[in-house]
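If you are new to this repository, start here. Below is one unmodified record pulled from the training split, so you can see the exact layout before writing a loader.
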Amino acid sequence: MTANAELLRLFGLQGQVALVTGAATGIGKATARLLADAGARVVIADKDLAGAEATAGEIAGAVALGFDLADDSSIEAMLDAIEGRFGRLDVLVNNAAIFPKYPFDTLTSAQWHEMQQINVWGCFAVMRTAATLMRKGGRGGAIVTVSSVGAPRTAVHDQIAYNASKAAIDSMTISAAYELAPDNIRVNSIQPGAVSTLEPKPQPQGHQPPTGPLTAPGRILLGRPALPDEIAGPILMLAGAAGAYITGQAIVVDGGFFIS
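And here is the target side for that same chain:
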């Protein structure tokens, strides 16, 4: 086998179908592009359908679907559409989430439950429905959920609800890896630290820049936030044959913040 053929075997996704949620911008968009470059037929899913369509327009063969993590029927309709169009699903990148900052002293029950409903239950609902489609195919599959370094280690202030949701996702990753291993479906999560936003989003009135350990000088050992592509790379590894013996893991991708 030539070197190029071995690289294609390890990192290629030729003939596979990959769903990336929250893919209109940021990490999701970078991941969708990379998976498509690796040969996958990519589904760009986002609550912002216009943004998903714009991203899909930049990626040859990509398909855009709108969906809402807070709506179970919307999630089921999204996977039904994928099955109807492609008849299979091989890779899920469970990236969509919300991440508002809520101060510890004023966090409300409604804010807490909305965060867990969308980030935890929504993530689980996508994972379970996607796994059902993967099982139908009988070929196995790979599920990669985008968590946060804030799950194992507090990174910025005012994110207690968000960090709790991401810690739940990492625990869910381990449990799902147990449940789905007999079907050769691998389940892992990625824990990014600070990530540069190449396409800044409008901030709500009163928005304050983040503060806390992650923003302190010297805490990111590599000296800068990640680029979205630098999170997409490990996701590709976990999605393909290069990660074929990895399951139930949470992989930190934070430029050294965790160990600093």
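Two things worth knowing about this chain: The longest helix spans residues 109-137. The longest strand covers residues 185-192.
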